[in-house]
Every structure is written in structure tokens, then in C-alpha cells.
Amino acid sequence: MLKFVFFIIGITSCNHIWCQNNLGAIGTWREHYNNQSVQQVTLAVNDQGEKVLSATTSFQVALVNSKNQIELIGKSNGLHDMGIACSAWDSEQSQMIIAYQNSNIDIIQGDQVYSINDLWLSNLYGNKKINDIYILHNWAFISTNFGIVVIDLIKHEIKDTWFPNNNRQNTITFQVNCTANDLYAVTENGIWTCPLKNNWATNAWQWRSEYNNIGIQKITQFNNQIYLYNNIAVYQYPSTMPLMVMNRGIINVCKASKEGVFLAIKWGSKGSMMQLNADKTFLTVIDSSILSNPKDFCWDGNNIWVADSLHGLFYKNNNATAISNWISLGGPQATIKGKINSNASFLVGGFSNNNNGWARYNEEGWKSFVTNKGVAIPVLNFSTTDPNDNSIWFTYQNGLWHTNLDQSVSEQITPLNVKGPYSDLQFDQEGVLWVLVDQQGLLQKRDNSWKNIIPPSNISLNGAQKMVVNQQGQIWIIAPNNQGVIIYNSTNNTWYQLSTINNNLPSSSVTSILEDKKGTMWVGTNNGIGLFDCSELGNCKAYLPQIKNSNGFAGLLFQKEIVNTMAVDGANQKWVGTNNGCWLLSEDGSQILQRFSKNNSPLPNDTILQICIAPLSGEVFMNTNNQLVSYRSSANETIQSTQNIIVFPNPVLPNYEGPIAMKGFVNNAIVKITTLDGKLVFQTRALGGQAIWNGKTYEGSKVASGIYLVFARDDAGMEKSMGKIIITSGGQ
Questions:
Q1: Cα separation of 407 and 430, whole Å?
Q2: Is residue 215 part of a domain?
Q3: Domain span at 374
Q4: 414 in a domain, yes or no?
Q5: Beta bridge partners of 254
Q6: Is the pLDDT of residue 44 over 90?
Q7: Residues 6+ apart with CB under 8 A from 289
Q8: What is the pTM of this model?
Q9: What CA–CA distances, in Å, run from 29 to 83, 342, 432, 631, 693?
């Protein structure tokens, strides 16, 4: 369950921020978002006077506690949607209101998330965009593109809809605010006011025509004094003469407080935070050398917190030490658009998409690298890891980027001075590095010696981007321009081309290639999947697997679907990414075991561009058209010899209802769970090197509290092991 724990904010140094995103149980998700774009920052106070800083991005809410720790709240742990438009804190009920860009609304109170989806489901209004949330006692006033939606914050339901005009017509409402006696609405038709009685609008609206045609879209107030502003000027109500006018730049946000009137300003690629003095001069609070696009700010005693949409969350302490710092909210520094790659130690990926640098993920979290010795790292695309020394290789436009973090060594390489866009790269089983160079051919690195392999004249690699090096030393390349598959056989220096006519490909538009645990080549296209399992490539014909649909009729696997990416887990099951989500298939592709989409999972987008599986944990990383998420699957890679069994969770606590994972087995091991006196409770087989148990007997009843033994062996009876599971919950 989602649980908000609120702490007193007392930041003195934020150099060691810890972000909670631990690996969970089987079937749980994690989000790995780039949280650089912070849109709102709020200081909330609960009933005990404790404070929590809430920073809102488009995808998550980050809570900073007194120990400089960050808890990320997103779709994977409670929220019903993503694409956050705005949020607000209700101090009287100690709850957070989150409005999404699709007009859905969540209210988080303690360990409960209340969904208010009436507006999202409604067809009454054409444009339901939510612009702002204002809290007044037991009510939340939601400013929308048709009027004001009033939410009862105690009953968690929509109470009423107001139209700030006298004809009850839809009107775009940008923001509302209140004094003790009046409600102010900033609309597309200017400023409207309405008397409040017992915190409820009388709906006797009055148009403040004096503010018409000056582009007012935002409002703030302190101590019953209203301030209105547009992009360049601030007005102190009821005066129509500007309190100040900007000479350059635009006003992102203005807030009034007991300290004065503060503004977040943006001009060009720079931004700053200013204080408006009584004599209408400005005092710079945070200058443009730090901020880029400040969108919001708040105060915490001596600290000023700023949400910057380009660089994240910043704070400045105004005491004698004047400490200031950027606060990392977890995740890579930029959205990873390059090919990700995982081994037993870490996952890496280049930012690509015109963003310099790359990021690494391990048990300590994400770390981003954008410069090397003060020089910008190139825009990196595809990645692979050297199995010999764990060094990392990337391709970029003009060559290779090679880095060894253990030795703090990085280098740019253009092997044999071969020019042209460098595309994919991969190590084979012998530790030989293969590189695909667009328009050129292949590069091979063996024992620190490079070789250039040029295809024959009848083979065109112009536009080639992806390849797979299989166990037989064959390089399978996705042929550009709908030409099927091009294969280079390194054992006899021969080139082949697979097509729909000669080799039964389901389509000449190939989109992905995968080699499974048994050496079968899976070729994904824009019209399904073909399987190749042939010793002679020239005469090889694809097998097109069939699968039964919900009506019982057999059809070709993923027919009429674009297969963007494929991956194989420790149990030789296939994970397939399409434009309609992610699918888990049985080993031979004859069964769909699971399907995930944005509607039934935390996937931010149904377009899955790449799937990468961490071998030891079995965690499945899915890079979408939007952001990166991961899912803890039930299969991981096998080990050569079973010695130690790792059980998670262990002990099993009373409130735990999920699967119990056991890993460290040989492939397909027989796993038995018994009582201490040897009575068999449950038996299963490992998926790859991992087995799961639901804590129940064969009959489906929960086992009693106590200690249970785990035994494992392979089919030959050669590998044996034993572990223990402590159950602190139980039924009978």
C-alpha cells in the first residue's frame, strides 16, 4: 500500500540525497524517470506541525524528508495515472490532490488513494484541461478550460461546477484565489469576482472590466491583498496601474508573502528569482548563472526551494552559511533514448537524441555522465559491455566511446579511420567486439587488433542500424529499406540475405532480431515473427508460429503487429515489445503468459522500443516511447552450480501476500519445500535460476508460521542445495 510519511524539513546539506527505489517482490514495478523537469514545489504541514517538501514532475511526486531522503510516488506505487498537470496540498485534511493532463484526479490521504474520474469520463465538455488547484478549507477549486469544478475534500467527490460569468456558459478559467469575503477567477474573459458566504460562492458574479484586454492569466494573494499579473507586469488590486513592468524576459510565477512579492523570471535560456522592493526596484535572490526556467518556488524557514523545468529542484539557505544546491530526484539526468545494455553488475544506456552523455544503474541507483575531464561527452547511441573487464563501449556519429570506470579511463576511437555513422555493437562469446558502421560494413576487434569487413557490391548496408551476433559467429543485420535480413558468417567469410520469397519471412520490413537460449533466431517484422533454426543459411526457411486467440481460432504470432523489440529471460521465455504494449510468451511462442499496457500497468506508453533483462534479478527493463520502467519477473539467469539459495522476502511478514522468490538454482531445478520434520508442502520447477512459491500448500491453504526447508536438485540428481524460509504469518 502507498503510505505518506511526513517529516520536518531541516536541510543543512543535500550532497548525499538518497532516493528510495528499491527492488521489490516478484510482480512489482519500478519507474526510472528523468525527473529534471520539476513543475511545482510545495511545503505541506500536517496536524502535528510537521513539514514535508513536495516536488511535482510530469510523472511523479517526490517527497523530501528531514534526512535528505526522497520518496518517489508514481503509478507503480499508488497513483492511478501519469502526466501530472498540477497538484496542491490540503493542510486541514492532510492530503494531496493531484490533477492529470487527461483531467483525471487523485487524492492521496495516508495509505489511501481516492480516484475521482468523473471529469475524465464525462462527455459534457469538449476541452476538460485542468489549469490549477486552489484549496479553501474543505473545498478544492479546480480551474479548467470550461469553468470551476468544486471537489468536496472530505467526501472525495465532485460537489458542483461553477461558470465564472452571468450566463452559465463555458469559459476558460486559468486560476482562482480568495480573500476573506470574495472569490476571484481569472478567465479568458478577464477578471470575475463573486462574494463568499460560509466559504461557498453565491454565484453572483461581477465582471471587473477595468482589467479587460491586458492578458491577466494568474493571481496571488497574501493577507487579503490580491495581486494580478501577466507575462510582463504585476498589478496590485484594485489599481489598474502596474506595480511593476518587466524590461526583458517574462514572468513565470509571482507569489506574495510576508517577506514581500517575489517573481520567477525567464529570458532566453536563463532564469532568475527576484524580490520586488517597496520602491519598485528588484533584488536578485537567485541569479541566472544557476536557474534556467524557474516554474515555482516556496519557502521553508530560511530555505527557498525552486522548481526548475530544465534542471530540477534547487534550494538556497539564506542564513550566514548561504548553502545552496541542486537536489537529485533520482533517475537518469536525461531520458535514455539509446540502446540499453545490462550485465550482472549494472545497466547502461546512452542518452542519444541530441543529449550528450550516458547513465549507469546499479544497486546504488542512477549515476549520469555528461562530461569527461571538463569536456562534453558525445551524443551516444548504442552500448555494450566488455565481458573481460566490464568496460563499456558506445557508438556515436564519428566513432566509439570507450570507458572503464574502475580505472577512470575514457577514450574516443575511430578504428582504422573508418568514417560514417557508427550504429550497433556487440561482443561475441569469444570476447570479440563487432561494430556495425552505416554505409561501410563491419569492424571486428580481436586481441586489440581491428579489421574492416566490407560487404560485396550486391549487399547494401546504407541505413543499417541494428544487428545481433549469435552463438555460431553469425552477424544478423536488419537490412535497410525493407530488404529483410543480411547475415555475415564469420566462420567462412560469407554473406547471405533472407527474404520473404526465398526464406519465408513474414515481411521484408524487419524490425528486431533475437537469439534465444537454444540458438533459435527470432526475427520480428511489421507483420509478426519468424523463427530460423537451420544449419544451412542459404536454404533456410522461417517457421511462423501460430497462437490461439480469445475465440479459439489459431493465427500467426503477432500478425499485423509491429514487433519493435524482443528479449529472452532465464527460462527461455520471450518478452516482446510492440506499439500495443509488452507481451510475455512461452518458450516456443505458442502461449501468451502475460500482457502489459498503460491501462493495466505503470507503463507510461504502449510503444515499447527496447526490452533489456538484468540477468541475476530477472528484472525486465522496458524503454518506452516516453520513459523507462522495470518489472520484477519470476525468471532469472541460471548458475553453473547450486550452492546458496537466496530467498526474498525472508522472513515473510504477516501482512505479505505476494510471491516468495527463491534464486540460485541450476536451470530447471526441481524445488521442494518441506517442514522441519520432512513433510512435503510444495514442489515446483525453477524458471531459469529462480522459483516462486505463494506460501500455500497444494490444497491452496496458507501454511502455518514456522521454519520451512528448501531442497533443490537437477534431473540427474547431481546438484543439491538447501535453504530456509521463515514464515511469520500463517493460516491453520
A1: 23
A2: no
A3: 333-431
A4: yes
A5: 263
A6: no
A7: none
A8: 0.82
A9: 18, 18, 35, 5, 19
